[in-house]
Every structure is written in C-alpha cells, then in structure tokens.
C-alpha cells in the first residue's frame, strides 16, 4: 500500500515555478539567488500612515523596486502569532483600488514566490483576478495595471508538494495548503498587490501576505527547493514532509521510466540524450534491468523529431533493454494502425529488437504493441507496452499473451490510463470532462477504443498485474492510485509526466528501486541535467508489491 500522505494547513506558500527541497537561511536563499527583481518582507521596510494604513513597502533587493500605496488603502500591518510564527503580515481588506503598486513597465517575471494566508470571507480570495474562477495570481494580456498571471489550464500546479491542477484544487489552496505552479508572464505598467481598476470587473483581494520574491528567470529545481524549505521553516508552514527513503540497497534492482519526451525530441534533443546516457552510465550502480518509455517520443511527428528520439533511445542499445509505449503524438492514422504500420514501428522496427533475449514479441509485427520478459529480484516479470487508445483486438492480444505466462508478474505501460485526479480515464462515466481522453482524441475509431477504466475492467483486474504506468496527462506531473484486482491483490497504478515544466521537463525521470525483500519499491525522481532529486511526496515515496 502506498505510504504517501497529505497534510492540510491554513497557510499558503505560492511558488510560480517547479518544486523541491533544500536548507539555508531564508534571507540568503532569496537574496543571493541571481535574477531577483524584488523581495518584500512584512517584517522589514513597511511604512504606515497616520491611520495605520500601509503607504510604502520597501524592496529588500538592490533594485529599489518599492511598492507604494495611498493612505486611504485598506492594507494594514498586523502580526499573526500562530499562523506566521509570530512574524508580521500585511493584511489586505479588499480595497477597490490598487492599494500597493509598483512601476513595473518593461519587466518580465518568470518565478514568483508568495507566502500568503487567505481569509474565509465570501469575496474573491487571491491576489488579483477578473472572475471568481481565476487563480489568485493573474494578469490579462493587453491590459495595463495588472498583476501576474498564467493560464490555469496550462499551469503546472502542485498542492502540498503533490501535483494537481484541477480547478477545485486551485480554489481549495487559497484557504488551505501549499500551491506550487509553473508559468512565465509579463508585468505591465503597474503591478499591484491586492487591488484592481473597477471597470475591468475584477475582484478585491482579502488576506495576508508575509513575503514576496520575484525573479526574471526560471529558478532551477535546487534553487526553488532551497527557498521553499527555508520559507516553510521561517513561517512555520507545515509542508508535507517527503518520505525519508533509504539509500540504494545492495541487492536492489531498478526500472527507469521515461515519460513524454516529445518536447525534447522537438526542441531539446540534448536533454533526451542526457537521460539515456545517464541510464547507461548508472546501469550497474542501480542495477537497471529495464527502461520503459511511457509514450509520446515525439511532438509533431516530423522526421527530424523521430531521428532525435531514435538517436537518444539507441544509446541504450546493447546496454539496457527497453520497451516503448505508443503515444497519441506518435500515432499516424487509424488505418495505418490497423495495418501494423505505425511510425513507432517504422523508426523502432521489430527487427531491431528480435535478437534481444528479453523481447517476447509484437502484435502484427509492429512495435506499437509489444511484450518483454525478464527476471529480477527472484521474480519473473512480463511487460506489456500497448498502443495509444488500445483497440479491442489489442486487448484480446494482451490477454492471450498473459495466458501463456500466468506465473509472471505483469507490468502495463500504456500512454493514457490514470487521469489528473488519480482516477482512471472513464469516458462512459465522465465523458469529455476528463481532458485528452482517448475517446475524444480518437474520433475516427468508431468505438474501437479502450480508456483506462475499460482497460482495468477488461484486462488489468483479470490478470496478474502488479503495476500500471502511464504518461500523457498534462499539468501536474505525477499521480498514484491503488486498487484490488479480482484475485484480491493490490495493483499499484502510477502516472508520470514532466513535459509542462521548463525546458520540456528539465530531464526528470522516474527511478523505481525494488528492494531485496521482494515487496518494497522506492520511487525517486531525478534529473541528470540538474543532478537533482525532487523530494516531495508526489515524487519520492514508497509502496509495496503484493506477493
């Protein structure tokens, strides 16, 4: 059973970028990091007027980007004993005009960090917005006098370190939790904290801010990690701790998961090659037995992209065996799929794998559907790598393959299975409310499509699957679920996809370490590019495989 837990708190740490952990003083962590535009701390540099309203919030950086307000504003300096560890905050009471503003023309913000606590009022809760459904930090392109923004449909959101960008989750973290998101945006002529120009139809912000830091570049994972941890300790924000994983144990063996490399193949081929090169260099250190690509090797399907993908994956040839799940961006027409002529099969033909001792075979002579056999940790395994939106014929083929190997533990690698909310794709029940569903993205398939729930009912629950793996889902990056199959055994289901992060995903891959006890698995997320691990509970955790 998975051991990841979530803790809920009443303080919100908002980080517009990615995530991680580290450890130095908050001041040094923020001010010594290059690219800082301004740094505001409610404990320092706050000037109040005759009636106690905040009229000036001094920038602690060397740029002197101070925020200035009017004495008629509703911003007040107060102390929040429990919520902020005895440190003061600026309390915003819902002014109808910009209470604190900065002349920010020409500046571009790429990482914004805000320590805030919202109130339980019925008004809009966030820093700025144009509608009740907007994020707490937002701007609209083409308008002056706006704050920050990123489209909530493309942002990568992380709540308490666990990624989730459903609208409900975004709204929920305005009153409870830690929000981490990813996005770049412009700062217009006047960047404001806590207000709007009324004729834009905005909402007033109500809540408290303790600290703000804005950078003109995307910080690295390690930098974001250090700042997040420092602020959490400074303000006594109960960030959900990561699972303290043991060092790699002698006698362990590993699988490596490569999710959605499409942006690498299109724009950053060196990032893709760095991943597979690292795998080869560390195959003995981590006893890596197999590499599973979760689909979408390429983005637009150009010959150039396929060549990049082929070059990167071929670094593994003769060194570490691999299986590739066929993604929707790897697909050609349904007619070609039926004929066994996928582009995956063209660039990674069966002939390439036929001599591998671990290669079991492929359906219709096309690697869009293949199976692989290997043994590790005293267990015999079978991997099924299935095509995008598997056809009924494909599901039956998978059944027939598994019937020949009933004593092997099975792993399913398919592109679309779990969704953002960690439930399976289920078009029959949820329809188009689940974005990127295989049914809605395959209109030419005339019902010959199986989504996650259909695969669960028709294939997974009826066979000896220990683990399912998928990518595909945008936004949050990671997810997990456990269900019991028809034999009463737990099936661990995991999705991973970092493509929405900077640089197409910053090179992050998932390393699954199977411990010598034969049941415990430690999941780690690592970037060879940054030489950094993501240590939040969504990226570092432990689970068990049933015997």
List the helices and strands and how they pair.
Blueprint: E1 12-16, H1 26-31, E2 36-41, E3 46-48, E4 54-57, E5 67-68, E6 76-79, E7 88-93, E8 100-103, E9 108-109, E10 111-118, E11 158-159, E12 162-163, H2 167-172, E13 179-181, E14 185-186, E15 190-193, E16 206-215, H3 221-234, E17 253-258, H4 262-266, H5 269-281, E18 288-293, H6 303-314, E19 322-324, H7 334-338, H8 343-347, H9 350-353, E20 359-362, E21 370-376, E22 379-385, H10 392-404, E23 409-413, H11 427-430, H12 452-460, E24 465-470, E25 478-484, E26 490-496, E27 509-514, E28 520-527, E29 532-534, E30 541-544
Parallel strand pairs: 1-13, 17-18, 18-19, 22-23, 23-24, 24-26
Antiparallel strand pairs: 1-10, 2-16, 3-4, 4-5, 6-7, 7-16, 8-15, 9-14, 10-16, 11-12, 11-13, 17-27, 20-21, 21-22, 25-26, 27-28, 28-29, 28-30
Helix pairs in contact: 5-6
List the total number of helices: 12
Average pLDDT confidence is: 76
Helix content: 10-25%
List low-pLDDT spans.
1-24, 119-190, 195-204
* SSE-based structural type: alpha+beta
E-strand count: 30
In short:
This protein is of the alpha+beta class. Strands 1, 2, 6, 7, 10, 11, 12, 13 and 16 form a 9-stranded mixed beta sheet that branches. Strands 17, 18, 19, 27, 28, 29 and 30 form a 7-stranded mixed beta sheet that branches. The protein has a 7-stranded mixed beta sheet with strand order 20-21-22-23-24-26-25, with helices on one face.
């Amino acid at each position: 059973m998975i051991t990841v837990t979530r803790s809920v708190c009443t303080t919100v740490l908002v980080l517009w970028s990615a995530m991680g952990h580290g450890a130095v003083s908050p001041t040094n962590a923020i001010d010594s990091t290059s690219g800082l535009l301004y740094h505001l701390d409610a404990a320092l540099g706050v000037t109040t007027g005759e009636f106690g309203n905040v009229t000036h919030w001094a920038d602690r950086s060397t740029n002197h980007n101070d925020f200035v307000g009017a004495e008629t504003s509703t911003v007040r300096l107060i102390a929040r004993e429990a919520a902020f560890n005895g440190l003061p905050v600026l309390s915003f009471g819902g002014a109808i005009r910009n209470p604190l503003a900065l002349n920010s023309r020409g500046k571009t913000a790429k990482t914004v960090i805000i320590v805030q606590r919202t109130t339980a009022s019925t008004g809009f809760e966030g820093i700025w917005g144009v509608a009740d459904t907007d994020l707490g930090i937002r701007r609209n392109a083409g308008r002056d006098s706006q704050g920050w923004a990123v489209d909530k449909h493309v942002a990568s959101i992380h709540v308490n370190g666990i990624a989730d960008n459903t609208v409900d989750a975004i709204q929920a973290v305005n009153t409870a939790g830690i929000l981490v998101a990813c996005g770049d945006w412009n700062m217009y002529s006047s960047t404001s904290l806590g207000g709007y120009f009324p004729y834009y139809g905005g909402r007033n912000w109500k809540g408290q801010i303790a600290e703000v830091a804005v950078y003109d570049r995307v910080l690295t994972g390690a930098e974001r990690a250090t700042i997040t941890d420092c602020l959490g300790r400074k303000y006594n924000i109960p960030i959900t701790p990561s699972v303290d994983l043991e060092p790699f144990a002698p006698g362990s063996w590993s699988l490596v998961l490569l999710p959605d490399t499409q942006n690498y193949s299109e724009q950053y081929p060196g990032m893709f090659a760095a991943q597979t090169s690292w795998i080869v260099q560390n195959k003995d250190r981590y006893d890596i037995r197999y590499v599973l690509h979760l689909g979408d090797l390429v983005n637009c399907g150009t010959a150039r992209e396929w060549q990049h993908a082929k070059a990167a994956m071929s670094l593994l040839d003769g060194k570490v065996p691999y299986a590739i799940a066929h993604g929707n961006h790897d697909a050609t027409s349904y007619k070609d799929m039926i004929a066994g002529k996928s582009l995956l099969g063209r660039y990674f033909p069966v002939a390439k794998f036929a001599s591998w001792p671990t290669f079991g075979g492929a359906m219709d002579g096309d690697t869009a559907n293949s199976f692989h056999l290997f043994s590790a940790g005293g267990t015999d395994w079978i991997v099924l790598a299935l095509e995008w939106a598997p056809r009924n014929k494909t599901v039956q083929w998978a059944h027939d393959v598994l019937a020949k190997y009933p004593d092997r533990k099975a792993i399913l690698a398919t592109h679309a299975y779990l969704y953002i909310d960690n439930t399976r794709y289920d078009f029959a029940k949820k329809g188009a409310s689940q974005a990127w569903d295989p049914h809605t993205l395959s209109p030419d398939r005339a019902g010959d499509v199986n989504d996650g729930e259909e695969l669960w009912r028709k294939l997974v629950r009826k066979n000896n699957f220990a683990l399912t793996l998928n990518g595909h889902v945008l936004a949050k990056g990671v997810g997990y679920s456990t269900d019991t199959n028809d034999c009463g055994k737990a099936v661990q289901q995991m999705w991973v996809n970092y493509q929405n992060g900077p640089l197409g995903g910053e090179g992050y891959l998932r390393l699954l370490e199977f411990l010598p006890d034969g049941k415990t698995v430690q999941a780690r997320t690592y970037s060879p590019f940054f030489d950094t691990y993501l240590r939040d509970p969504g990226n570092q955790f432990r689970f068990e495989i049933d015997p």
